[in-house]
Amino acid sequence: MVVVAILAAGRGTRMKSQLPKVLHSLGGRSLVERVINSVEPLSPSRRLVIVGYQAEEVKTAMQSIPGLEFVEQTVQQGTGHAIQQLLPHLEDYAGDLIVLNGDVPLLSTQTLKILWQTHQEHQNAATILTAYLPNPQGYGRVFCDSENIVQQIVEDKDCTTAQRQNRRINAGVYCFRWQNLAKVLPYLEANNSQKEYYLTDAVTQVGQVMAVDVEDYQEILGINDRLQLANAYEILQRRVKEKWMMAGVTLIDPSSITIDDTVELQPDVIIEPQTHLRGDTVIKAGSHIGPGSLIEDSQLEENVTVQYSVVKGSIVQAGTQIGPYTHLRSQVQVGAGCRVGNFVELKNTRLGDRTNVAHLSYLGDTTAGTKVNIGAGTITANYDGVKKHPTKIGDRTKTGSNSVLVAPVTLGNDVYVAAGSTVTEDVPDDALVIARARQVVKPGWRKKSAE
Ligand code: UD1
Ligand code: CA
What we know:
With 451 residues, this protein is an alpha/beta fold. The chain has two domains: 2-220, Spore Coat Polysaccharide Biosynthesis Protein SpsA, Chain A (Alpha-Beta Complex); 226-433, UDP N-Acetylglucosamine Acyltransferase, domain 1 (3 Solenoid), CATH 2.160.10. The protein contains nine helices and 41 strands. The strands form seven sheets. It has an eleven-stranded parallel beta sheet with strand order 12-15-18-21-24-27-30-33-36-39-41, with helices on one face. Strands 14-17-20-23-26-29-32-35-38 form a nine-stranded parallel beta sheet, with no helix packed on it. It is elongated and about 105 Å long. Bound molecules: uridine-diphosphate-N-acetylglucosamine and calcium ion. Calcium ion is lined by residues 101, 103, 222, 224.
């Protein structure tokens, strides 16, 4: 049985931010959310998050994650002091405790499994994750004997020049036999350069402590400032892009593309330069996205093309062409084999199969049937200044250029709207509607008026 504690009370001074450090976003998810996700597959029986600095903001931001318990550390006196706050919450607990820093977001589940397994196999009192870093500056240094038994952990700030040469660092990821840790926690002292209670001091007092090296040191990089945040983002992006390329996705100029790790892609998807895929997006086989597009929280079926466009919160069926310069704003459903083209904005709108909105249109709160043709410059006037109103357009209906459909209004099937019409009343099936002043031509008018 394992309980997980996540350290998220620190202020993150080096971020120089109004936002608590652990809430900073890394590719669409906060640092602390990533940490929680990494440990989830171990099915911990309890997940305790230690909060302190801006505790309310942190709790609110994490509300949607079920089953978290928050423990308050009202003054932040160090990582050891943070873990001391768990004592009243784990009084009779006899299992293992995994402790994770809330600012180490790239950790893999596999690494945590190895840590826990080693801990159990060797019946250690504690097992800690270590790594050899090319640049260990800022991290605690770990000193072991030849059997990987930890002798000492010294914080960077407390190291002698000789100790600082050690490149083996403490990742801030630990597995404790809780009962052993609980016994030493009350006796921690803060006699160090930062006047803090260090969890690392407790580590070496609990009994046999073993170090396990992480295979890829990039996993354990901590985020303390914006530069490290950007570096972590690069690592994450490289991982995500490699994964999709190996799975059969073509990325043209990968360095100019960004893909959240929540996105799902299918083989033979082609992503062109300067394209960004975010959130809960799914793009199916044969689709060709970009250049220059943003797709967020959207589902694109097979063989969809999108060029220089923004697609958010929308579903696009197979074989449809979007763009260039289209904005699907939110809650848009476009049918199969449609064309939505240049300078078109759609919002809360549903288009049936093989319907075209090819040029210069705005459709809001609109439902259009199949094989509809929305002429260039057709606009729905869906807002009267107080409420939004719906527009319904039947199958095979065609609107002429520069029509205004004043909602609420319904056009039946096979309707023709004359160019330049302002339609304010419903139109039945098969009708032609002309809603504009008849053209008047006055021959010789200029000559007369000029006299
Ligand atoms: C810590 C370790 C160091 C390790 C490094 C790995 C200690 C003393 N040092 O140093 O050995 O190499 O992590 O990244 O543990 N926090 C609290 N309450 C506090 C202080 C901190 O909850 O009172 C939280 C922070 O929010 C953060 C985590 O603990 O998530 C680590 O704190 P931080 O100050 O970043 O520790 P480091 O100096 O990086
Ligand atoms: Ca840190």
